[in-house]
Amino acid sequence: MAVSGRGLVDPGAPVLAADDEGFARGRAAFETMRVYDGRPFRLEQHLSRLAVSAERIGLEAPDRGEVARLAAMALEHAGLADAVLRLYWTPGSPGGEHRAIALVSTIPDWIEEARSRGQRLVSLLQQRRSVPWLLPATKSTSYAMSMAAEAEAKSRGADDAVFVDADGIVLEGPVSNIWWREGDLLLTPSRELGILAGETRAALLELAAEDGQEVEEGGFTLERLLAADEVFTSSSVRELMPVVSVDGRRFEIGPAATGLQALLRASAGL
Fold first, then answer.
1. Which of 83, 105, 127 is the C-terminal boundary of a domain?
2. In whole angstroms, what is the distance from residue 167 CA to residue 94 CA?
3. Same-domain check for residues 136 and 195
4. Which of 208, 4, 179, 165 is nearest to 98 (CA)?
5. Residue 160 shares a structural domain with residue 247
């Protein structure tokens, strides 16, 4: 782990004060990305989103160069070719300085097994975050609701959730974006719905266009998702995750998820 003002720090060492609002109130920004062969995927884009999230929750802008330096330091010390890199930006103690933290961890073992079998989702009601005070598209450490959604999904016998608003419009997952295929057309909720536009989502939009695939972004109903030919999710750490059921409706693992996963890995140099 690397921390601003301190350099490399043992992962077990304390780095946050109890009165830091990043801890006390969840008022901190963060980014998570996959590391391929020692290289953080779309690091510059993640740093840009970190700055946007910081501004929206009222924090000073992070020094991009310093955060990137801490990330490189933490990765070199960890010595992992393939890993997860998390970047945090907190306000620090009242009257103190903001703090950047770069943390490196291993890729969870369960991901590849889940990818091979596919995941089961349940739909959960969620408010659409389309007005500024609801912090649309902001990645903050206030993650209790996302964790509660995952727990609720598991209590219903599923692996994860997909959020749907009161009008039945599909939004996103607790930590992922949702996609589905209708014939040759790919669909995914648009950013105008207040979703967090993931960097893997952005990469897939670029890759699909380069591959000649048609993608439509918009506000789509849960009924349309349930009528799809194929469903999958995307996120930085999990990459593309095939979905084999939504609210009990079964789906087969299809060619879109498999093909785009291969394109994603290729774009990362693998």
1. 105
2. 41
3. yes
4. 4
5. yes
Give the residue numbers spanning the domain of 19: 2-105
Residue with tokens 């980014």: 31
pLDDT at residue 134 in the model = 83
Kindly report, residue by residue over 203-240, the tens digit of the pLDDT. Answer: 999 999 999 999 999 999 999 999 999 999 999 999 99
We report the CATH number of the domain holding residue 190 as 3.20.10.10
Dig out the tokens for 261 from the structure: 């996963």
Q: What's the Cα-to-Cα distance from 112 to each of 151, 182, 203, 239, 242, rounded to whole Å?
A: 21, 26, 20, 10, 11
Residues 144 and 29 grouped into a single domain: no
Please state, in angstroms and rounded to a whole number, the distance separating the CA atoms of residues 32 and 104.
10
Tell me the two tokens of residue 255.
Answer: 């060619």
Q: Please state, in angstroms and as integers, the Cα–Cα distance from residue 109 to each residue in 76, 114, 131, 245, following that order.
A: 22, 9, 38, 22
The model's pLDDT over 123-138, given as tens digits with 9 standing for 90+, comes to: 999 998 878 888 888 8
Q: Which of 61, 80, 105 is the last residue of a domain?
A: 105
Q: Taking residues 165-179, what's their average pLDDT?
A: 97
| 101/15 Cα distance (integer angstroms) | 9
CA–CA gap between residue 240 and residue 218 (Å, rounded): 20
Residues 209 and 252 in one domain: yes
β-strand pairing of 119-125 with 160-164: parallel
